[in-house]
Amino acid sequence: MADTEKRNFDVLQDGVITKSLAFSREEREELGLRGLLPYSVSPQELQMTRLMENLGRKESDIERYVLLSSLQDRNERLFYRTVIDHIEQIMPIIYTPTVGQACKEFSTIFRQSKGFYISPEDKGEIRKILDNWPKKDIRVVVVTDGQRILGLGDLGANGMGIPIGKLALYSACAGIQPDQCLPVMLDVGTNNEEILNDILYLGYPHKRLEGDAYFELVDEFVQAIQDKYPKALIQFEDFLTPNAYALLRKYRKKVLCFNDDIQGTAAVTLAGVYASSKITGIPFKDLKIMFLGAGSAATGIADLMVRAFEKEGLSKDEAIQRLWFVDINGLVVSGRDDLMEHNLPYAHDHEEMEFIEAIDEIQPQVLIGATGFGGAFTREVIERMTAINDRPVIFALSNPTSRAECTARQAYSWSNGNAVFASGSPFKKVTYSGRTYKPGQGNNAYIFPGIGLGAIHSEAKRIPEATFLVAAKVLAEQVSDDDILLGSLYPPLPNIRDISLNIAVAVAENIYDLGLARTEKSENLHQEITDYMFDPTY
Asked: Per-residue pLDDT averaged across 327-351, rounded?
């Protein structure tokens, strides 16, 4: 029988407890539902069949996004069961690439609030208004200020779609209880004139708060979360690069937090590079890696790779010498006077040169794109990488799909089928010269849910950088020989719950080993974390 004191329509309209047509005859009698539902008792599996048929009738992915968003409100367990069982079809709708379009249209498609909004007018009262959130045991907070949404730029409060989508993946991919998740928008304005002039815009209708006033508001938010939800993990998401680094430097050793764009992207990319060695035969420690783009994502990847190279026995200087950057002004070298602070460690003593020239000069085995600029990997780029490598490794990481540096088909065809390709957004299988390739998606969903699960289970005080190295190793180890034969650098998405569980166990072990846990270690950590994980089946 259903475990609830609610009756009648209150049961059916409660999105957390409802089973809709799956209520049995006995439950309908007990809960006063007779006459309120059609005769048929439809189990969850059949409800999913109906839902997938309805999704197929929609003409666009943004319409599918709206349908799924509505389902999440009215029947939470059916939503999550469908996401888990159809992850390859559903994840591109509820997250990249469709979430980018959903953010651009957020004020237009808005139906029901799913998160918490903080504006400059709340300064001095953030802790007070947090009491308005109905759930008391929040364990994961995903927060953005909407200034750098995917590769789309400043979308202001419309960027709330990102925390909502990330937390849906936390629950689906790692079993974080949905009622322990809190999406937050630090709505500090927008400098996007088009959005400010939109009469439907839902956000704070002013230019962005900047400077000390901005950082004071963020700090008040962080302190309020610490006070209200002392066990909560804070995940910073889609902040402008200078702010992202400033906030990470300030809080990483004081607060349970991480930046997914910097650290999550780094771990998932490192895992893919580890796995690429199984295809190319070149040991990780011998690789030279070039980045196109020198923002927070790219330098975050490089920072973690330095640690990975050091683990292989290289000195820090030797590790840095294996990592090269090219930005809009060419090769990042010490003679330039236009570099940001996070670029300086990778500014080599070398003459300036353009991208293609730098490929020929440096001869990297791995090329990583994090530009936010679609088509940045031209045919000439791929052909040059192929000329100097039997199996060039190409990562086109920018999201959404329209911003990918190249498509999977371009990478395979321009390299005569020799490229080892991975991307940030999903691409379908590609058949070239009679061979079928399944490009791996370097999606952060492989990493952040498992890290979050391990951190909250151990009640970590903070997340050290070594944790992301651990997570990357675990992910790479789960790439099978069958995956490698298809050219994929990542395991199949349908395995995501097991992947997240394995990462969570390794992360928790690491937290305990470092003395950063606030709980006693279980004798059977794997089983204890398994038992915690949210199961939406009814």
From this structure: 95
Is 490 noted as a catalytic residue in this protein? Answer: no
Query: Tokens standing for 96?
Result: 């990249």
Q: Match domain 94-255 to its CATH number in 3.40.50.10380, 3.40.50.10780, 3.90.550.10, 1.10.287.380.
A: 3.40.50.10380
- Which fold does the domain 9-79 belong to in CATH? Hemocyanin, N-terminal domain (1.20.1370)
Determine whether domain 446-532 maps to CATH 3.30.360.10. no
Return all residues near 212 (Cβ < 8 A) that are at least 6 apart.
Answer: none
Q: Express each pLDDT in 355-404 by its tens digit.
A: 999 999 999 999 999 998 999 999 999 999 999 999 999 999 998 888 99
Measured CA distances, 254 to 76, 238, 249, 377, 460 (Å) = 34, 21, 10, 39, 11
Confidence of residue 335 (pLDDT cuts 50, 70, 90): very high
Average pLDDT in the chain: 96
Structure tokens at 333: 């070298």
> Which of helix, strand or coil describes residue 257?
strand
Q: In sequence order, which residues have a C-beta less than 8 Å from that of residue 299 and are 6 or more positions away? A: 262, 325, 342, 343, 346
- Confidence at residue 372, expressed as pLDDT on a 0 to 100 scale: 87
pLDDT of 1 over the 60 cut: no
- Cβ within 8 Å of residue 203, ≥6 positions away: 107, 146, 156, 157, 158, 185, 187, 189, 190, 195
Position 435 scores a pLDDT of 95
Backbone angles phi, psi at 8, to 5 degrees: 55, -140
Quote the CA–CA distance of 442 and 447 in Å, as a whole number.
Answer: 10
Q: Give yes or no on whether 94-255 and 446-532 have one common fold.
A: yes
Annotated catalytic residue within 65, 80, 95, 512: 95
Task: From the candidates 19, 104, 166, 438, give the one annotated as an active-site residue.
Answer: 166
Q: Domain spans of the chain? A: 9-79, 94-255, 277-443, 446-532
CATH code assigned to 277-443: 3.40.50.720
CA–CA separation, 271 and 315 (whole Å): 21
Query: What φ, ψ does residue 265 adopt, rounded to 5°?
Result: -60, -40
Bridge partner residues of 96 (DSSP): none
Query: In the structure, what pLDDT confidence band is assigned to residue 2 with cuts at 50, 70 and 90?
Result: low
Does 3 score more than 80 pLDDT? Answer: no
Structure confidence by residue, pLDDT tens digits, 412-460: 999 999 999 999 989 999 999 999 999 999 999 999 999 999 999 999 9
pTM of the model: 0.94
Answer yes or no: 95 catalytic. yes
**How many angstroms separate the CA atoms of 482 and 502, rounded?**
20
Q: In what order do the strands lie in the sheet with 289-292?
A: 330-331, 323-327, 289-292, 366-369, 393-396, 420-423, 440-441
